[in-house]
Amino acid sequence: MCPLFGASSTQEKKMAAFSLSNFSPVPAAIQCSSSSSSSQLRSRRIFLKIEAFASFSANLPPSSSNPKVVVTRERGKNGKLIDALATRGITSLELPLIQHTRLPDSDKLSSVLRSTSFDWIIITSPEAGVVFLDAWKAAGTPKVRVGVVGAGTASVFEKLQPPSKQSLNVAFSPSKAIGKVLAAELPNDGNGRCTALYPASAKAGHEIEEGLAKRGFEVTRLNTYTTEPVNNVDEKILEQALSAAVIAVASPSAIRAWISLIPETRKWDNAVACIGETTAVSAKKQGLRNVYYPENPGIEGWVNSILEALQVENQLQKI
């Protein structure tokens, strides 16, 4: 059974950190030396601390038994989003919709990096970045220049240690975090034959290599992984998910997986909060309504889109 995540874990951390010693003492000016005064003072302090603790508890997020948001990435990849929502008092349910499977090209990638030098490596998703990094390390960390589609993808490379960062240069991100803009803006450096290696999902579209080819780039695409819907979904968890106000999705594959889970007899028109425009376009094409997305993909923008969706949902419930 898929576990619930959200406010409960944050509550435990806050409770563990809570201590009566965290509250400031009563000013010295009102302290008395007599035993009766000292007793009254201790009672007053205890009262103040209990009152503060009650206020603190009242502001904690509600129980996660009634989640407001469904997070749908693979288990282990939802932590930042869950924590960001929990700090805002929003409960969430983890329901992985897709799983990643590496393809033979992922093994080929390391040998290509060892034998061939490219002007650019194009990375357009966090998973593509993870697969690339594994192959790049296996190839001996050759010097490469990387172009990423946006901040969310770039974050995959932030964990690199300084020695590795000297060999891997994240040198480009487009003005708007979508593939067609990347293809239009990637610097050509004035070379007659600018080369690009594009390790991608087998299900990714072809707008990037086609757009770059029109500008004179020579693009080598390797389909290093693919995505598949999660096979088994607990019925009780699915029922909770269908009742939640917002579902948060990070890829067109997740959109398709979600739609396949909605029963034919069930009308579902709650909000969809997408990580970026590409996923949002897919959601609208699939017939979903109330679609929200940030201008620039990333956790912060994604959370803001979720908050906007929840605010609209709350207003509709009041009508």
From TrEMBL:
One of its GO terms (molecular function) is uroporphyrinogen-III synthase activity. Residues 81-303 form the Tetrapyrrole biosynthesis uroporphyrinogen III synthase domain. Pathway: Porphyrin-containing compound metabolism; protoporphyrin-IX biosynthesis; coproporphyrinogen-III from 5-aminolevulinate: step 3/4. It catalyses: hydroxymethylbilane = uroporphyrinogen III + H2O. GO terms for biological process: protoporphyrinogen IX biosynthetic process; uroporphyrinogen III biosynthetic process. It holds the Pfam family HEM4. One of its GO terms (cellular component) is chloroplast. Its EC number is 4.2.1.75. It is an enzyme of class 4 (lyase). It comes from the Eukaryota. Keywords: Lyase, Porphyrin biosynthesis. Catalyzes cyclization of the linear tetrapyrrole, hydroxymethylbilane, to the macrocyclic uroporphyrinogen III. Belongs to the uroporphyrinogen-III synthase family. This is Uroporphyrinogen-III synthase. It comes from Erythranthe guttata.
